[in-house]
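In the previous chapter we treated chains in isolation. Here, by contrast, the input contains three separate entities that must be folded as one system, with a combined length of 915 residues.
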Amino acid sequence: MSVTDDAPQAPPTERKRDRRHERDVALPRWMWVPAVVAFLVIALPVAGLLIEADWARMPELLTSEAALAALRLSLETAAASTVLCILLGGPLAAVLARGRMPGLRTLRSVVLLPLVLPPVVGGLALLYLVGARGLVGEALRLGFGVTVPFTTVAVILAQTFVAMPFLVVSLEGALRTAGERYEAVAATLGASPALTFRRVTVPLVLPGLMSGTVLAFARCLGEFGATITFAGNLQGTTQTLPLLVYLQRETDDAGAIALSLLLVVVAILVIAFARPRNTEGIR
Amino acid sequence: MKCRALLGLLAGLALLLAGCGGSSGAADAGGSSAAAQPKTLTVLAAASLTETFDAMKARFETDNPGVTVRISYGGSSDLASQIVNGAPVDVFASASDATMKTVTDKDLTTAAPTIFATNVLQIATQPGNPKGIASFADLAKPDLKVVVCAPQVPCGAAAKKIETATGVTLTPVSQETDVKSVLGKVSTGNADAGLVYVTDVTAAKDSVQGVTFPEAQQAATNYPIAVVKNAPQADLAQKWIDMVTGEFGQKTLNAAGFGAEK
Amino acid sequence: MTGAALAATVRLDRPGFSLDVAIDAAPGEVVAVLGPNGSGKSTLLGVLSGLLVPDSGHVRVGEETVTDVDAGISVPPHRRGVGLLAQQALLFPHMTALANVAFGPRAAGIAKRDAEARALSLIADVLPGLDADEMARRRPSQMSGGQQQRVALARALAPRPGLLLLDEPLAALDVDATPAMRSLLRRVIRDAKQTALLVTHSALDALVLADRVVVLDAGRIVEQGATREVLTKPRTPFTARIAGLDLVPGTACTDGLRTHDGTLVSGLSAEPLVDGDAAVAVFAPSAVSVFRDRPAGSPRNALRVRLAAIEPQGDTVRLRASPPADGPAWLDGLAADVTLAAAAELAVEPGAELWFAVKATEVAVHPAAS
C-alpha cells in the first residue's frame, strides 16, 4: 500500500503568499482617503516633534542625569509591570476564556475598566486603597511597616493597573480563537491540564501573548496619570520618562521634545523587535 | 487623492487646535466686529487664581452688561504656550514672572505686565499638625515624609530658592507636578507635610493646616497680568486689569491669602 | 497490543435532548455507532472520553471504573487511557509530526528517546512508501489532509489507549484519500485488536471496520447486533435508510466475490484483497436493473429473486427481494430502485419471480470485518 492516492503533497517548505500577482478584491478605492488621513493623524504629530527638535543639543539633553535615570526607571518598571501582567493576567485571560462559572461577564467588564477610566482615576483609586489611610495601605503600614506610595513599587502597581487589560484582552481573544479542540485532544493523549497548558495552549496563543505583551509594555512605558497621582515624582525612584517630559516642558521645551523623541524611539524599537511573527500555519 | 487627504487632515488639525483653545473663546470670534452684539472677554489665568477670578468675573459681568467673561484656568506655562501658539486671548494673568516673560519675549503683550499680587509658600500639614512642625528647618527631619513641587514648576522653584537661602536641604519623597497634587498627598495622609502657596492652604479649608514660616518671604512669587497683543476685546481687557488692581480686586485677593501688589 | 473491555451505561439530559444508552465492547472488538446528526453519537464519545460528565451512569474501561456518578467517580480525560481520533486531524500546528506522535508517550512519562522511537515507527507504519524520517520532521501545514489524518491516527495510538474513539475519522477526507485511510484503519485497529468505538454515517465504514453495530436515534439505541446482520436485515426503516446499500457476503476471489453457496458476484475490489478473505460485495439499489426474464448480454451479475415487497419512495419504487424457493438465503432483503414508469411497465405483484441485474463496474468488493 502506498499513499500516492492521497491529495498532492505540499512541498516541504511552506510557500510564501505571492502578493505581487494578486488583485485587491476587497479594498474599495475610496478607502484610501480616510486610511491615509488616519495614518497622517498619527504620523504627522510625531514628524512635528522631529521638526521642532533641537538636534544640536540632543546628545546633551538625552544624557542628562535626570534623563538617563528616567529612561532606566521607565524600562525597569515597564519590564517588571509587564512580567506581572503576564504572570497574573495570563491566568486571568485563561479563566475568562475557558472558565465555566457564572459571573464571568461581569468579571470581564471589571477587567476592562482601566481601558475606559482616565489613568488619574486609577491612580486615585490606588492611592485610596494602598495609600496611608487606604484599606490595604493601613494594614501594610501597621502590619509590616511598609508604605507603598512614593516608591518604585507604586510605579509598578500603577503601570500594572493600566496595562493589565491590554494583555488580558489580547490573550483572551487568542485563547478563544485557538479554541479548546486541541486541548481536548491533548487530554485524550494523556496530558494533564498543566502539561496541556504548557505544551499546547501557550504555544498556540503565543502570537496573541506576544502582541498583548508588547501592548502592555508600551502602555506601561507611556503611563503618566496613574503614576503621578499614586506614586509621585522623584528622580531615580518614581520619575519615569513621561513624568520627566511633562515637567521638563514647564521650563525647557527643547528638553521635553528630546525626551519625547527618546520615548518614541523606545516605543518603535519595542514594536519592531517584538512584533508577533507571521502566524500563518498556526490556526 | 493624496492632496485631498492632506487638506482633510489640515482641516482636522485646525479643528483640534480650535478645540484646544476652545475654552479661550475662539467660538465667538465674530462678536468683536459688531459693537451691539454681546461681547466675550477671554482671560487665561493661573489655576491658583480660580476662586478670586471667579468672584471678579461675577462682579465684572454685573458692572458691564452684555459682557461675558470666559476664564480658562491652567498651569501658567500651559497658558503661555497657548498664547505663543496664537490662541485668541484678551488677558493673561500668570503665576510667575518667568512664564509671563515667555510671552513678553515674543512681544505678545500690548504693554509691560503689571504685578497685581504676590504669593508666598506655606507649610501644609495634616489637620491638627500631628507631627508638630513649626519651622522650615523641621521639614528636614528624617522621619518626615515631605512632598514639594518639582523644581521645574514655580512652587518648586520657590521651595528650591528657600532651601538655598536657608541652607536647609529637604529630602522630599516626591516632587509633584503642581500644588494641588502636593495638597492631595498631604490631605490623604500619605505625606506629613508639603510646601504650597498660602493661597492653596486657604483654599483647601480644613483638609490641611497651614504653618507660616518667615523664610517664605525670600521666595515670594509675583503674579503679573497683561493685555495680550491683538486682543479681540482690548478695551474690556484693560478694564479687567483695572478691576484686578483696583480696590475690589485687591480685597478679594487679600481675602484669599495673596499679598498686595508691589 | 490488545485493547481493554468497555462497559458503559450513560444518561445525560440537556434541553431538548437526552442520551440514554448502554454500550459495551469486548477486548479487541470494534463497535460502530451509526446514527444521523443529533442522535447523540458525539455526546456519547464525549462522555466516554471524560470531556463530558453524564447525569447518571458508569463507564468502565478494562478493570478501571472511570465514571460512576453514584459513587462520585469521574476520572479526568487524561487519566482514562481513552484515545480519540476526530474528523479533523487536529495535529498540534506548532509541532513536527514526530513531536505530535511522541506527545502522548511523553505525557505518560516515557523518556524522550524511547517516545520518539515509538513515534517514528508508528509514522512509518501509517505512511508506508514514504520516507518516515523526512515525514517525521514535517509540520502539519506541510502535509496533505490524508497524511495529517494518518499521523493523527498514529498519535492517537501512540499512548496505547485501552479504548480508541473514532469520531467519523473519514468524513473530512478527500474522496480520493478515503479508501486508503479506511484500509489503514482496518489494518491498525482491527488487526491489532484495538478496542474501538467508531462513530460513522457510513454503512460501508461499519462493514469494513466493525464487528458490531449500534444504531442510535434521538439518544436511544434502536438496533444493535453483528454488522452484517444489522445492515442486511434492517429491522427499522431508520437502519435501512442508513444501510441504503445492497450487500452480499462471501469470500474474495479474483473476479470479485464468491458467496458461500458458490455464486460468483463479479465486481471491482476497492482495496487490495487476498483470495479467500472474508469480503462483502456492495452496490447501490439504484444500480440494479430489473427484468421479468433473464437478461441477455452485458450485465455480468444476474440474480433470480422473488419479489417480496414494493415500497414507493417518492419518484422511485424500491423493489425488495426474497430468495426464490430454491435460491440462497443471502438474496433476502436485496433492493432495486426503479422509476415509477419502469415499475408500471413491469406490472408485477409481490411473489412474482424477477431478475436483478447489476454491472460488475457497479459492484465494489470490500474486505469484511468477520
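The domain at 36-118+222-255 of chain B is CATH 3.40.190.10 (D-Maltodextrin-Binding Protein; domain 2). The two ends of chain B are 60 Å apart (CA to CA). Compare these points with the single-chain example from earlier in the chapter.
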